[in-house]
Write a structure and sequence with these properties.
The longest helix has 10 residues, at 46-55. The chain is α+β, with helices and mostly antiparallel strands. It has one domain. It has three helices and four strands; from the N terminus they run βαβββαα. It is flat and about 40 Å long. It has helices at residues 14-17, 46-55, 70-77, and strands spanning 7-12, 24-28, 37-39, 44-45. A hairpin with an 8-residue loop joins strand 2 and strand 3 (37-39).
Length: 83
């Protein structure tokens, strides 16, 4: 978070939630754009992050695992509208 000035913290990141050394998900405010740069380790925009979350049924951390529960993820993602 040191490289982000005027950051608004949204939530602890996945490492922080697991009680290990981590950081936070945050956005820089104010931002004149319609979509804000979202600091999630990838430096994507927030809408791109939401698309990834929806594709994984709300659990984007599964993309880092070798054997995610694909059937469950498909069920959770079913009906989520693309943005």
């Amino acid at each position: 978070m040191d490289d982000v000035v005027n950051a608004y913290i949204l939530a602890p990141d996945d490492l922080h939630k697991a009680a290990t050394s981590g950081d936070y998900y945050c956005v820089r405010l104010p931002d004149r754009g319609a979509d804000v740069l979202f600091r999630d380790g990838r430096h994507n925009y927030f809408v791109a992050y939401l698309r990834r979350v929806f594709a994984w049924g709300g659990f984007p951390g599964w993309e880092y695992h070798s054997g995610p529960p694909t059937q469950l993820i498909e069920e959770l993602a079913q009906g989520l509208l693309p943005i």
